[in-house]
């Protein structure tokens, strides 16, 4: 049992959000430690935490509040999704007048999506990853993507594909389309099945399908796609050249993907691209959309969605903006001695490794020297990134993220944009996209 004792020492707004923050921490098991029997906040501690919340967690409060504002979400209905669809170039479904076939260009659309949003899954993904041969450098990673279901489902479970098509049609209808949405959505799934045919299986991918090559080689292997222009659009300030090294998924997949893309009508491509961008955002809309998603999940998994709204909103808030809340936990409950203990364990492992290397007579002195140098160069990341407990750094990192109390759906889209442009070296995703990019060049 955990008791939270609040001493009212600030305005009702700060105390209310402090309670919400504690609920989030509790629901995430941050405070469910057998050692914590009572958490008592003094006037000084509450004031101090209020300052932290004001500086670091106000956007989290706004985000959480927008999720809990069911009245506003219901009033907006499908509008946030329709606005987003127009923002990403629209689709041809039912010819609602927002899609222009003449000006719509698949290459420009993909450039816009992958340079603006994270994730942007149609066809393939572009990431930045560490170069395992030189940890001070980075590589562009091109990976296969673009399926709504697991690859094997398209071929082994047609009944599940049919259920998914019904769900897609329901979503399209809720968005206001009045044509035969079932036929349109079946076209998208038939297209995805073609893509799935040459998508690498999970087993083969686990064994390793990536090839290290210069961008020039990728251009030669897959000349059907404008790779250099695409990279320039995504990494605007990185001065990407054909000599940059990339880590590319199966060239066979990329070739067939590019050929399929070139041989498919604009109408179908636009519908596929938009569905890929909206499929994970359906549950962010009003209750009719959430019910459609819940019914689909229940038919597929047999599990009913019984979570109360506050728990759902807690999870979404933590997934998107959990770092500042984590900073409160670190400051109040994290035992710093755990870092020292873990570092000692790592050092002992290195020491034991070196000892065992020296015991092998077949390893000569020159090789041993290089092995030791490699072991000494190994870094360890323990506990948490330093910026998490530096209010100025944390505030700076979130400064460009804009959230509004009345636009829950748009707030999630803004997070997608922010993740795409975050330049923090600790963001763990695509921090090198805009600045600080140091690619491996040969």
Protein described:
This protein has helices at residues 12-27, 43-68, 70-76, 79-87, 106-116, 153-156, 158-174, 181-197, 202-207, 215-221, 227-234, 251-262, 266-278, 287-301, 309-321, 323-333, 337-359, 365-377, 391-398, 408-421; strands spanning 3-5, 38-40, 124-131, 134-144, 211-214, 245-248. The protein is of the alpha/beta class and 442 residues long. Strands 3-4-6-5 form a 4-stranded mixed β-sheet. It has a two-stranded parallel sheet with strand order 1-2. Helix 5 packs parallel to helix 11, helix 7 (158-174) crosses helix 8 (181-197) and helix 8 packs across helix 13 (266-278). The longest helix is centred in the first third of the chain and has 26 residues, at 43-68. The protein is globular. It holds the Pfam family Peptidase_M13_N. GO terms for molecular function: metalloendopeptidase activity. Residues 58-384 form the Peptidase M13 N-terminal domain. This is Peptidase M13 N-terminal domain-containing protein.
At a glance:
The protein has 442 residues and is an alpha/beta fold. The chain is built from 20 helices and six strands.
